[in-house]
Q: What sequence folds into this?
């Protein structure tokens, strides 16, 4: 059971799954791991692990395109602020630094525990456990959100650092990067729309860096495993689907809580446990 010769239909399906789930608080890596397992692939295979990280670039590029005006505004003010002192009073300059600071924890932790993330934590037991356990945290955070009033203009580097630390938990498949960042943000008093948007911004540097690192360091594994044709196909599909997913999610959180995602996570986690216990599927 190997991750060789991935066909284009499988690549398209996995690209759709990545695009739909990357920004929802349900764990894209967890869903990809489950889907790859059900397709009969070896989820511990190096090329499949690299594939899973690389196709996230497509969804993140969708976020960059969707939020380009905001990103460009913050970048230009931040860059000007490095040279012009009076610009540093502008909120976008401070916001730029907040995003940078919030992106540091996952880079450090991700590199420190790279081997464990790509091997031990790929087990479906970890995926199921994380889906269920983190649902409790999301429920507590969502209850707190009913009284939240902090907006984007209230963001400080302390907030993004704490949210960035929470993002590190997403290295465990099943926790969900957006689920972790959104939960911590809600617990710090931000409203749902603000923290969802902030989750996108913090995800851009983290996921682009992870994808590029895998593409560079695992090039031979991809070429000799799932193949670059399938990888590129899945990445393009994840971009298109991810763009639509972003637009939908922002509209959804403007008038809804995260209850539907919490129940979905609990149901999926329980189903995986049942399949594992019954021997229908194996953990790795």
A:
């Amino acid at each position: 059971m190997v991750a060789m010769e991935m066909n284009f239909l499988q690549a398209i399906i996995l690209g759709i799954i990545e695009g739909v789930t990357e920004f929802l608080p349900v764990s894209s890596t967890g869903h990809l791991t489950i889907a790859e397992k059900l397709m009969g692939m070896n989820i511990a295979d190096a090329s499949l692990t690299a594939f899973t990280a690389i196709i996230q670039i497509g969804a993140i590029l969708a976020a960059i395109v969707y939020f380009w005006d905001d990103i460009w505004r913050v970048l230009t003010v931040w860059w000007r602020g490095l040279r012009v002192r009076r610009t540093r009073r502008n909120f976008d300059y401070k916001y730029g630094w907040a995003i940078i600071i919030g992106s540091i924890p996952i880079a450090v932790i991700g590199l420190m525990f790279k081997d464990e993330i790509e091997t031990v934590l790929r087990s479906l037991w970890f995926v199921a456990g994380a889906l269920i356990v983190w649902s409790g945290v999301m429920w507590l955070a969502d209850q707190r959100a009913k009284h939240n009033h902090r907006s984007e203009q209230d963001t400080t580097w302390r907030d993004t650092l704490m949210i960035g630390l929470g993002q590190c938990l997403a290295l465990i498949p099943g926790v969900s990067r957006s689920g972790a960042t959104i939960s911590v943000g809600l617990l710090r008093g931000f409203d749902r729309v603000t923290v969802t948007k902030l989750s996108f911004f913090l995800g851009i540097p983290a996921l682009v860096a992870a994808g590029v690192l895998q593409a560079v360091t695992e090039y031979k594994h991809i070429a000799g495993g799932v193949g670059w044709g399938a990888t590129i196909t899945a990445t393009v599909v994840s971009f298109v689907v991810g763009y639509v997913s972003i637009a939908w999610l922002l509209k959804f959180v403007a008038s809804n809580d995260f209850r539907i995602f919490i129940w979905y996570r609990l149901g999926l986690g329980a189903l995986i446990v049942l399949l594992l216990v019954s021997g229908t599927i194996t953990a790795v």
In short: The chain has one domain: 8-278. The chain has 14 helices and no strands. The longest helix spans residues 192-217. Residues 47 and 186 are 36 Å apart (CA to CA).
